[in-house]
């Protein structure tokens, strides 16, 4: 039986749109900061609360790992915000499909996003010693999407679909 289209639900739509907006804003901040080192973003509240400093750090591109593994010129050495845009678009599109494989992909992609969120949160607090409002909000969105994805896989009353 093939997948059928459906509404992704208000919560998934809200989370995905918020994630996309924040990812696009992060791209804007990073680009503006690259052109002008004195650029001050709305999310730059102080020296210890600066999203532009975080986005411009080495961990703001390829999670700080891709360059060391695949090289600086690798196709995968992109701004983390690009990966965010891809992730939130994928979550929204998969959320519109009614099928077992789409539900499983939602959970798997959410698990990857949570692993990335934990890693980047650790870098944020213990390496950069910063607090990034945009980053923390995207981590919360990722947790929300994970909860929705798990609920999607589990049927009514906690039963797994198809069992």
What does this protein look like?
There is one protein chain. The chain has 163 residues and is mainly α. It has helices at 10-35, 51-55, 66-70, 80-95, 100-126, 133-153; strands at residues 4-5, 97-98. The protein has a two-stranded antiparallel ribbon with strand order 1-2. The two termini are 16 Å apart.
H/E element order: EHHHHEHH
Strand arrangement within the widest β-sheet reads 1-2
Largest sheet: 2 strands, antiparallel
Overall helicity: 55-70%
Helix tally equals 6
Question: What's this, in brief?
Answer:
The protein has 163 residues and is mainly α. The protein has 6 helices and 2 strands, in the order βααααβαα.
Write the layout of secondary structure elements.
Elements: E1 4-5, H1 10-35, H2 51-55, H3 66-70, H4 80-95, E2 97-98, H5 100-126, H6 133-153
Helix pairs in contact: 1-4, 1-6, 4-5, 5-6
Question: Can you tag this structure with a few keywords?
Answer:
61% helix; mainly alpha; 163 residues; two-stranded antiparallel ribbon
């Amino acid at each position: 039986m093939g997948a059928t289209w459906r509404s992704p639900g208000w919560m998934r739509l809200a989370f995905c749109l918020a994630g996309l907006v924040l990812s696009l804003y992060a791209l804007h901040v990073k680009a503006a900061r690259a052109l002008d080192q004195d650029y001050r973003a709305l999310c730059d509240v102080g020296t210890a609360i600066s999203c532009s400093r975080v986005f411009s750090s080495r961990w703001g591109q390829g999670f700080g790992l891709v360059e060391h593994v695949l090289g600086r010129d690798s196709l995968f050495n992109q701004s983390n915000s690009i990966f965010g845009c891809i992730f939130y678009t994928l979550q929204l599109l998969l959320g519109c499909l009614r099928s077992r494989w789409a539900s499983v992909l939602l959970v798997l992609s959410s698990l990857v996003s949570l692993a990335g969120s934990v890693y980047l949160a650790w870098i944020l607090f213990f390496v950069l010693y910063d607090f990034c409002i945009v980053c923390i909000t995207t981590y919360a969105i990722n947790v929300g999407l994970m909860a929705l994805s798990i609920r999607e896989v589990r049927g009514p009353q906690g039963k797994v679909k198809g069992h």
